[in-house]
Amino acid sequence: MSSLQGSLGDPLRWLLGEQADGFLTEVYERKPVVVRHNDPDRFRPLLSLADIDSLVAELDFQRGMLVMTDASRTIAESEYVAPSGAVDRGAVASLYSGGATLILNQLQQSHSGMASLCRSLESVFSCHVQTNTYLTPPSSQGFRTHYDNHDVLVIQIEGEKAWRLHDQPVAIPYRGEGFQPGVYPVGELSDTFVLRAGDCAYVPRGLMHDAATSGDKPSLHITCGLIVRTWADVILEAVSEVCVKDEAFRRSLPPGFANPSFDRAAMGDEFQNLIHRLADKARLDHALDFAIREFVVSRESDVSGALLGAHAPLAPAYVARPSIWRIEEEEFDGTKTVLLIAPGGELSFPGLDRASLERALSGTAFTPQDLGVPDPAPLIRRLVAAGLIGATSA
Question: For the whole model, what pTM was predicted?
Answer without folding.
Answer: 0.90
